[in-house]
Design brief:
Elements (H helix, E strand, L loop, with lengths): L1 E2 L5 E2 L5 H12 L8 H13 L12 H7 L12 H14 L3 E5 L2 H12 L6 E5 L3 H4 L4 H6 L2 E5 L9 H5 L13 E7 L9 H13 L3 E6 L2 H8 L3 H5 L4 E5 L10 E5 L1 H13 L8 H14 L3 H18 L2 E4 L5 E5 L7 H10 L10 E3 L6 H20 L13 H15 L1
Parallel strand pairs: 4-5, 4-6, 6-7, 7-8
Antiparallel strand pairs: 1-2, 3-9, 8-9, 10-11, 11-12
Helix pairs in contact: 3-13, 4-13, 5-12, 14-16
The structure holds pyridoxal-5'-phosphate (PLP).
InterPro entries: ArAA_b-elim_lyase/Thr_aldolase, Low_specificity_L-TA-like, PyrdxlP-dep_Trfase, PyrdxlP-dep_Trfase_major
Cofactor: pyridoxal 5'-phosphate
Organism: Tetrapyrgos nigripes
Length: 415
């Protein structure tokens, strides 16, 4: 044992250079195979044949080439490309400021946590909302809030009638007042009409309730309707947008709101352990996605409609149609199961990668892949018909989310 330079008694190896070299040897790690280029090309080809999720889109070589020019700041202090991205997206959405986030889940959770400071309180949302179904009861954990999940009466989206009957107000001490209404657009790929969002926002503002938007795929609404992002975001106090889904960036979301709100959210993000460092490469990749990938979305929607029409022509029941990039279908309507379709898809010479009832079309989907999938389903339908299958009346409308959950996880885990 020897003395370290600090003067403290620290055990030091008697053979320092040799042991350092040995640790160095242990640490060495090269996960890239010698065939990484071919491997990545294969991955890109597989993504083009994947209907599971648009989160699986992969960075193109062009995006990577642009991304490496990102600035080299530390985002907890000052990272120029990231600050520029936050300011840019704040400007196009008509908000005062923005905050780059690692994920959409963190963006929603911090967005809500920043509004909610003194329990008891409740948040009203759609019963299919991501914050209710896929965020692990995060608002209960992080904010001590209870969600009030509301099924829309029209089966498509919430209206002011749904919301006003669900918010908690008044002085009765038994009930936790509603402090936030959280909407999602798109929701399962469907567009929330602005004419029903605006009255909800006016109602919320009349009661001092905050409006949050989970706009993970709001880009699709702008691309499909031609409405500006500013107009789509105006009814909301806070908005979360994702870059890593339809836009195809590798990582990242953004939370938007007033300067005061984002200043608070920046502190909450650090508290959550989300203060990131050299994010310049990510911000630059997002800039590439905004510039080059947003214009691809109308084509994605055309392909999704082709997919829906093709399935209808085969006799498949559509559970939720292609308003943007998703189609939900019922495999039982042609006498088969999602598992059978997925397994047969995997056995094709060029495999198809499928989840459950949800089919997601994305910027890396090719038209040929839509044709291959339709051919596969048509083949199965024909086989079943020959074997005597007769289509029964559907009674499972509204259950597709559950089917999707089950199958989606089992297939993505096995890949
Ligand atoms: C509507 C919606 N909101 C939020 C998220 C969460 O995003 P992330 O997976 O980046 O946490 C998702 C993920 O797919 C989503 O679909």
């Amino acid at each position: 044992m020897g003395y370290h330079d600090s003067g403290y008694l620290v055990p030091m190896s008697p053979n320092l250079e040799k042991t350092r070299a040995s640790i160095n040897q242990d640490l060495k790690f090269d996960p890239l195979s010698s065939t990484y280029e071919a491997d990545n090309d294969l991955k890109r080809a597989q993504i083009a044949r994947t209907f599971i999720s648009d989160t699986m889109t992969v960075p193109t070589t062009e995006m990577y080439a642009y991304g490496v020019h990102g600035t080299l700041g530390d985002a907890v202090y000052y990272e120029p490309s990231t600050i520029a991205l936050e300011a840019h997206v704040a400007k196009i959405t008509g908000k005062e400021d923005g905050l780059f986030m690692p994920t959409g889940t963190m963006s929603n959770q911090i967005g809500l946590r920043t509004h909610l400071t003194q329990p008891p309180y409740t948040i009203v949302c759609d019963h299919r909302a991501h914050i209710y179904t896929y965020e692990l009861s995060g608002v209960a954990f992080h904010s001590g809030a209870q969600l009030i999940p509301v099924p829309p009466q029209n089966g498509h989206h919430l209206t002011v009638d749904d919301v006003s009957r669900s918010v908690v107000q008044g002085s009765d001490v038994h009930f936790a007042p509603t402090q936030v209404i959280s909407l999602e657009n798109t929701l399962n790929g469907t567009i929330f009409p602005q004419y029903d969002i605006v009255p909800i926002s006016e109602f919320a503002r009349s009661l001092g309730i905050k409006m949050h938007l989970d706009g993970a795929r709001l880009w699709h609404v702008a691309a499909e309707t031609g409405m500006s992002l500013k107009e789509l975001c105006d009814p909301f106090d806070s908005v979360s947008l994702c870059f890593s889904k339809g836009l195809g960036a590798p990582v990242g979301s953004i939370l938007l709101g007033t300067k005061e709100y984002i200043t608070k959210a920046r502190r909450v993000r650090k508290l959550f352990g989300g203060g990131m460092r050299q994010t310049g490469i990510l911000a630059a990749s997002v800039a590439y996605a905004l510039t080059h990938h947003f214009p691809l979305l109308p084509r994605v929607h055309i392909l999704a409609r082709k997919l829906e029409k093709g399935l209808q022509d085969i006799g498949v029941t559509i559970l939720s149609g292609a308003e943007t990039c998703m189609v939900f279908y019922d495999a039982t309507s042609i006498g088969t199961t999602y598992d059978e379709i997925a397994e047969k898809g995997l056995q094709l010479p060029s495999p198809l990668f499928l989840g459950g009832s949800r089919l997601v079309v994305h910027i890396q989907t090719t038209e040929a892949v839509i044709d291959d999938f339709l051919e596969l389903v048509a083949g199965i339908a024909k086989e079943r018909k020959k074997a005597g299958f007769v289509k029964a009346e559907m009674n499972g409308v509204g259950q597709y989310r559950d089917v999707y959950v089950h199958r989606h996880w089992s297939i993505s885990k096995s890949k």
